[in-house]
Write a structure and sequence with these properties.
- By secondary structure, the protein is α/β, with parallel strands linked by helices.
- It has 4 domains: about 70 residues, Signal recognition particle alu RNA binding heterodimer, srp9/1, CATH 3.30.720; about 180 residues, P-loop containing nucleotide triphosphate hydrolases (Rossmann fold, 3-Layer(aba) Sandwich); about 70 residues, Helicase, Ruva Protein, domain 3, CATH 1.10.8.60; about 190 residues, Peptidase M41 (Methane Monooxygenase Hydroxylase, Chain G, domain 1, Up-down Bundle).
- It has 22 helices and 16 strands.
- Strand 2 and strand 3 form a beta hairpin.
- The two termini are about 25 Å apart.
- It binds adenosine-5'-diphosphate, zinc ion (ZN) and magnesium ion (MG).
- The site of adenosine-5'-diphosphate has 21 residues, from helix 8, helix 13 and helix 15.
Length: about 650
């Protein structure tokens, strides 16, 4: 196996899928097509017309209040300077004054509020702190009083009290809108927003999926069971309760589920794991309960939970962590146990990160079948390209095989993106059809992005990986008693492996001889040895190999008593352990000086074996070269072809 440098940020977990782009289970769509019922019926739906009405209502009300305010306060009173105001008092025009903090209002009590034929009956002025003002009023016999606040009082109250409430209401609503996904009303929590997709609602079929044959076959079987359960039950066959689709982002897991929905002919509930994780405690669990209740009523049916890791994360290692998620997960486990395989409810899950899932989810009776959706190999990529190319106008000269060849490590979503990008490029260049150059340019653009995200390895690295894996395989073939090579591949898989060589034992083994253990070390060292022969330098890719090789060498000496000096003596006691698989703590049972001996001995075993492996590989350099070239071309070599080439 070859592993990427640990320091490299692995992006697999980070790239959130662009699922939201495929609006396959969009409410509106299913309504338009007159499809299955929509489970989502919030009591209030603020997104409908009602709410728009009330928004305009508020806006108009506020406007009216403001107009009223200005109208009433400026009610035909004339604004005059303070000195003029005093003059008017002195000459008797003003006989009454109303005093408020903001203004003084002068009236003529004889003529009433409105003098006939005159637009001004009252005078307003902005007060100046003048201690002689009140004595002036007394002297002129002017009546004065505190201003009756009249209408403006009410307006002030309205603005002071109601406006903040209106404001708070808006903020509150806005927050709910952000929180609740896809326009769920405030009052609809607890209800789940799964949508039932009836047959024909999605017109995706298995023909739209390419390059994931294993997964496809598995799911076709599930669909077949739902269509004709009798066939399986009669013979006593058991269909899995839960099928978990596992694979890197963009490999087509959601697409496969969509194909199941399109061809199963039974109701299909689709939910994303994130939908369960809500802000309110208990809501997630309630959603799960509700979902299963509805599913049981509609059986036979399929429940699809996308992005299962959002709820199914392991409960270990987060003491006092997300209580809400834990409740949701527990409810899910309870519900899964609650229906029998015969009930006709099949649970489909998808995740990019099976390693974080809680072990309880993967136990028999739950997601008991795991289907790996691999990254496509060269033929798979060509098939995927063909599917997507059918949607755009392609020039006849376009060679999709060539494109497939130059896109190792790309997943279905990347390839769909390339086709789309090439169409855009063609349009930009004013062409009516996509030509090969457009596709090549699209690859370059996509590749740069993916390389930045560390999802695609470059040509040089790919070559290193190919020689490395071939090194393992050839060493295995040359080592007597070694397990036969079943598959060599340089298609990166999941997190951590850029390529691997698969060896499967021909029979169950419970013991191993010293020679076989040494053989294992040889095979592990074969990868790095090949790198050294070809490139004259070694890489970090063998980190995992040498860790394992070292472990075996150390076990030889400390556990299996296979060293010269301490023959048949155990130097380290471990809790029950077998073949280097550690369990429990190891216990040192030797002197300090022995430690040095062990280290030296381990070093010498590794050194000797490495030299032997180097020699063997050098003697077979022609095969190393030929097989690597084949591997670079085909990406995967199966056992027969490999043995064929070894014999040649
Ligand atoms: P995942 O759920 O595994 O992350 P998706 O199913 O969302 O990936 O894939 C995204 C898009 O990429 C799909 O809608 C489809 O257009 C394209 N795609 C991915 N895999 C395939 C495939 N095997 N065959 C055809 N198209 C694919
Ligand atoms: Zn390796
Ligand atoms: Mg998906």
């Amino acid at each position: 196996m070859i592993t990427p440098d640990k320091n490299n940020k692995d992006d697999i977990n980070m790239s959130k899928k662009n699922d939201d782009n495929n609006s396959w289970f969009n409410n509106k769509d299913s309504k338009k097509k007159g499809g299955g019922p929509n489970l989502q019926e919030p009591l209030f739906n603020f997104n409908k017309g009602q709410f728009k009405f009330s928004f305009w209502f508020f806006a108009a009300a506020i406007l009216i209040i403001f107009l009223l305010n200005t109208f009433l306060t400026s009610n035909s009173s004339q604004l005059v300077s303070f000195s003029t105001f005093k003059e008017l008092i002195k000459n008797g025009t003003i006989t009454e004054v109303q005093i408020s903090n903001d203004y003084y209002l002068g009236l003529n009590s004889q003529s009433g509020i409105q003098l006939p034929g005159s637009s001004t009956s009252t005078y307003r002025t902005v007060p100046v702190n003048d201690p002689s003002f009140i004595p002036l009023l007394d002297k002129n016999n002017v009546k004065y009083s505190a201003a009756s606040e009249r209408a403006s009082n009410i307006i002030n109250m309205l603005l002071g009290w109601i406006l903040p409430f209106v404001f708070i209401f808006f903020i509150w609503r806005f927050m709910f809108k952000k929180m609740g996904s896809s326009g769920t009303g405030i009052m609809s929590f607890g209800k789940n927003n799964a949508q039932i997709i009836a047959e024909g609602d999605t017109n995706t079929t298995f023909d739209d999926v390419a390059g994931a044959d294993e997964a496809k076959d598995e799911l076709i079987e599930v669909v077949d069971f739902l269509k004709t359960p009798k066939k399986y039950l009669d013979i006593g066959g058991k269909i899995p309760k839960g099928v978990l689709l596992v694979g890197s982002p963009g490999t087509g897991k959601t697409l496969l589920a969509r194909a199941v929905a399109g061809s199963a002919g039974v109701p299909f509930f689709r939910l994303s794991g994130a939908d369960f994780v809500e802000m309110f405690v208990g809501v997630g669990a309630a959603r799960v309960r509700d979902l299963f209740k509805q599913a049981r009523e509609k059986a036979p049916c399929i429940i699809f939970i996308d992005e299962l890791d959002a709820i199914g994360k392991s409960r270990m290692g987060n003491a006092g962590g997300n209580d809400e998620r834990e409740q949701t997960l527990n409810q899910l486990l309870v519900e899964m146990d609650g229906f029998s395989a015969k009930s006709g409810v099949i649970l489909l899950g998808a995740t990019n990160r099976p390693e974080v899932l809680d072990a309880a989810l993967l136990r028999p009776g739950r997601f008991d079948r795991q289907v790996v959706v691999d990254k496509p190999d060269i033929n798979g990529r060509e098939a995927i390209l063909k599917i997507h190319a059918a949607e755009v106008k392609m020039s006849k000269e376009v060679d999709l095989k060539e494109i497939a060849k130059s896109t190792p490590g790309f997943v279905g979503a990347d390839l769909a993106n390339i086709i789309n990008e090439s169409a855009l490029l063609a349009v930009r260049a004013g062409r009516k059809k996509v030509i090969q150059e457009d596709l090549e340019e699209a690859i370059e653009k996509t590749m740069a992005g993916l390389q930045k995200k560390n999802r695609v390895i470059n040509k040089k690295e790919r070559k290193i990986v190919a020689y490395h894996e071939t090194g393992h395989a050839i060493t295995a073939a040359l080592t007597e008693g070694s397990d036969p090579v079943q598959k060599i591949t340089i298609i990166p898989r999941g997190i951590g492996a850029l390529g691997y060589t698969l060896q499967t034992p021909t029979e169950d083994r419970f013991l191993m001889t010293e020679r076989e253990l040494i053989g294992k070390i040889d095979v592990l060292l074969g990868g790095r040895a090949a790198e050294e022969i070809i490139f004259k330098e070694i890489s970090t890719g063998a980190a995992n190999d040498i860790t394992r090789a070292t472990d075996i060498a150390r076990s030889l000496i400390t556990e299996y008593g296979m060293s010269e000096k301490f023959k048949n003596m155990v130097l380290t006691k471990r809790g029950a352990s077998f073949l280097g698989q550690e369990s429990g703590l190891s216990q040192r049972e030797y002197a300090e000086t022995t430690q040095q001996y062990i280290d030296e001995e381990v070093a010498s075993i590794i050194q000797n074996r490495y030299e032997a492996v180097l020699k063997n590989l050098k003697a077979n350099e022609d095969k190393l070269e030929a097989i690597t070239q084949k591997l670079l071309e085909k990406e995967t070599i199966a056992s027969e072809e490999f043995s064929e080439m070894m014999k040649a």
